[in-house]
């Protein structure tokens, strides 16, 4: 650490002594969070165009929507969430689970617009804690009017207005943000998870824990006393110069 230039040669010896008494706090160690993730789907939002929504799986980790019965050997769309164990520090990306999307057949008016994923994080470090988080997943079902498979792909993404649920540990507030989908172990993250018509694909969901506030804002007593000593010394030096 470099001291600023206003610490001149006369004051510097005392300053070093004072700072050695005060001491600097040890470099903060990264907070490690670890545990296990599970998830279930909640009650969906049907949307304006879905006059006859058909869905199953509320309260489970497998959600289906849409009526495929007019088509031979067709199946409805499906989302399967599988959680996993995790260990991460704050501000680092980590995998919370896998999302498998089956792009089946959804007759017009029988789908849903979005569905919430209720995540349960069972922490075992730094303390035993079960915490619930809720995120809204928007579902886009294309009408399959084009020859291009990419244009006919259905997709899912986490809505922008999803709240960032928070939890408190040791006087600090933390949020859990879902950052996107990845199929290369987190090297790249995308906001939309697209699946071709008739295909089934799996992508990992990545997240991040961020510290947003702290209730511990009072400086340590030793630090305050040390600064007072420095101030007193500077004043006394100034008075001495005036007398001389």
What does this structure look like?
This protein is mainly beta. It has two domains: 12-25 and 220-243; 32-214, no CATH class. Helices cover 14% and strands 41% of the residues. It contains two helices and 13 strands; from the N terminus they run αβββββββββββββα. The protein has helices spanning 12-22, 221-243; strands at residues 32-41, 55-56, 62-65, 77-83, 85-89, 93-102, 114-125, 129-140, 154-158, 166-169, 172-182, 192-195, 200-214. The strands form two sheets. The protein has a seven-stranded antiparallel sheet with strand order 2-3-4-6-13-11-10, with no helix packed on it. Strands 5-1-7-8-9-12 form a six-stranded antiparallel sheet, with no helix packed on it. Helix 1 runs antiparallel to helix 2 (221-243). The longest helix is centred in the last third of the chain and has 23 residues, at 221-243. The relative contact order is 0.17.
């Amino acid at each position: 650490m470099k001291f600023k230039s206003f610490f001149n040669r006369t004051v510097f010896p005392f300053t070093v002594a004072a700072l050695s008494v005060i001491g600097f706090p040890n470099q903060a160690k990264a907070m490690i969070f670890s545990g296990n993730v599970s998830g279930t789907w909640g009650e969906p939002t049907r949307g304006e165009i879905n006059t006859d929504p058909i869905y199953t799986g509320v309260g489970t980790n497998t959600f289906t929507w849409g009526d495929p019965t007019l088509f031979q050997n067709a199946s409805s769309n499906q989302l399967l969430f599988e959680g996993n164990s995790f260990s991460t520090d704050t501000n680092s990306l980590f995998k919370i689970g896998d999302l498998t999307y089956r792009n089946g057949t959804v007759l017009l008016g029988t789908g849903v617009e979005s569905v919430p994923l209720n995540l349960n994080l069972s922490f075992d470090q730094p303390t035993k804690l079960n915490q619930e988080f809720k995120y809204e997943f928007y579902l886009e079902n294309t009408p399959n009017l084009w020859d291009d498979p990419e244009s006919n792909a259905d997709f899912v993404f986490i809505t922008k207005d999803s709240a960032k649920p928070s939890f408190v540990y040791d006087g600090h507030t933390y949020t859990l943000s879902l950052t996107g989908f990845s199929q290369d172990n987190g090297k790249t993250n995308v906001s939309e998870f697209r699946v071709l018509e008739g295909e089934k694909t799996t992508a990992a969901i990545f997240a991040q824990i961020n510290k947003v506030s702290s209730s511990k804002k009072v400086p340590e007593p030793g630090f305050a006393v040390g600064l007072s000593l420095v101030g007193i010394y500077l004043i006394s030096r100034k008075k001495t110069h005036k007398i001389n």
